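User: Modeling request: complex.
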Amino acid sequence: AQSVSQHNHHVILSEAASLELGCNYSYGGTVNLFWYVQYPGQHLQLLLKYFSGDPLVKGIKGFEAEFIKSKFSFNLRKPSVQWSDTAEYFCAVTAYNQGGKLIFGQGTELSVKP
Amino acid sequence: EAGVTQFPSHSVIEKGQTVTLRCDPISGHDNLYWYRRVMGKEIKFLLHFVKESKQDESGMPNNRFLAERTGGTYSTLKVQPAELEDSGVYFCASSLFAGVAGDTGELFFGEGSRLTVL
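Assistant: Request completed. Predicted assembly structure:
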């Protein structure tokens, strides 16, 4: 069965610090990979996704993620975080032809101190 | 354009009672999904509708849960009778297409319905 593991449950950073959130998945076939974000009091929204092509994917708000197939990883990065990045981040995977069914990781809560 | 809307935003009921959650997807989105997050755990898939048909209901926990999608528009998720372990946040999402040519379209999520069973 597919699964997604996010390495950190809660990350606390100061503004301007660099961010890297780890995500590993287990599935041997072709996958689509996603990072979703949920800001306090808001709905889940898509940060970025990997479907095919360039493994370095750029998303909204300065986020990027790198798909490393050999490591089954899709880590999220941002060079310099802002207080407004405080949110919960979810890595998710869906397998080819699974009808869009997302398998989520446990979520990582990011707190950015001003 | 309106996003995915869910109602109610929060429901508090007693064990054994019935609750019905409603989801209105984005207009024109044939794909509608229900997910659930129990406190502190991951968001888990419950089921997937394509129009009015259940495409995948492999995530439904048991027969106390009943999902419907009348006419391929809004969807309801009924829990009857509710148990303590049903507490959590129920998310609905919709998408325009799913799994076409290997690409999974973006899922647009609602704000969730928080269910508390006492």
